[in-house]
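In this section we turn from sequence analysis to structure. A common task in structural bioinformatics is to predict how a protein folds when a small molecule is present, because the ligand can shape the pocket around it. The inputs are simple: the amino acid sequence and a SMILES string for the ligand, here adenosine-5'-triphosphate. Study the lines below before reading on.
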Amino acid sequence: MREEYLDPEYIPDILPHREGEIGEIFELLKPIVSGRRSTNLFVHGSAGIGKTAVARFVTRSFGEEGTRGIYVNCWYQRTEVAVLTEALRQLSYPVPRKGRSVDELVEEFVRNIEGEKIVFVLDEVDALTDDGVLYVLSRSPTPIGIMMIANDPYAMRHLDQRTRSSLSPMSIEFGRYSVEELYSILKERARLAFREHSDMAIKIAARLSYKHGSDVRYGLNLLLRAGRLAGKTGDSLSIEHVKAVDVKEDPKKEMRQGDLEGEHVVVLNALKQLNGSAPSSEVFTKYKEIEGKGAERTFRKYVKELIELQVIGAEDIPGRGKRRLLKVR
Ligand SMILES: Nc1ncnc2c1ncn2[C@@H]1O[C@H](COP(=O)(O)OP(=O)(O)OP(=O)(O)O)[C@@H](O)[C@H]1O
Ligand SMILES: [Mg+2]
């Protein structure tokens, strides 16, 4: 397993399902590239839905166009002094953190960015202990594209009137991902991280992430822990591993019969048409009759997954050969 691809800090080269937001942010910040003032932005939305990833992606892309991207997480840099010191460090003008007054730092910052094109991200902006730095940035003689991020949609209301008016940010709400979107995001990370994995395991991880507010971080963590478990036995990542991971909810409840799709449903219908109980070979015959698409091998894979999901049960039929009786649970 290549764990780095499941690390929440990893920024993929593309961020599927955020193309719209990325495009909008680019458009609004673009004037900075030609030295003009841009609209300031306030991005908000719940945890783990790609706000930071998009911000980092945006600053990285602007960096390639000769604009300097500064990214500060205000959870770690809470004061005006801390934010400006960190910004100067990223601009390669390091100053000692101690022994400078706020005024001196502001002066130093303003002087050093003269003639530069700056996009400045303040992540977790509501963790700032004072608004001073926001005021300074919004009033800077050199135009700065300011992008603020918070979970709380009302974070801007807590700013003082003067700062709020100088910033006049445009709000961009990041919505929740759907189960399908989560699936495709996690699937891509799984493809990078695992040599082999079961598709159904990713579907379950997506569903669980959805239950947790569409938090991608939750799904990544789940896959990481399941992957470590799989690694112990040298297996490929399976539903069993995801299920075995200590999650608060019981994953088997997450995937109910009504949530199944595609060929799994056809297999289940075949079994139901046989009064809900029949030897596997008969279920396969029925499955083909009702136009199941899979060959026998694929059929067996679907059955195995349905068993793992506890949608159907299986018991060995005594006698010669390996015959199994399948039952709807
Ligand atoms: N559209 C996406 N495509 C690929 N990866 C994504 C996407 N959205 C989120 N992720 C990944 O999910 C993880 C969490 O995303 P991120 O850190 O951006 O969340 P956030 O919205 O900033 O959450 P918080 O409010 O808790 O800070 C990261 O690893 C990120 O790369
Ligand atoms: Mg974040």
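The beta strands are 41-44, 68-73, 118-123, 144-150, 170-173, 277-279, 312-317, 323-328. As an exercise, try to locate the residues that line the adenosine-5'-triphosphate site and compare them with your own expectations.
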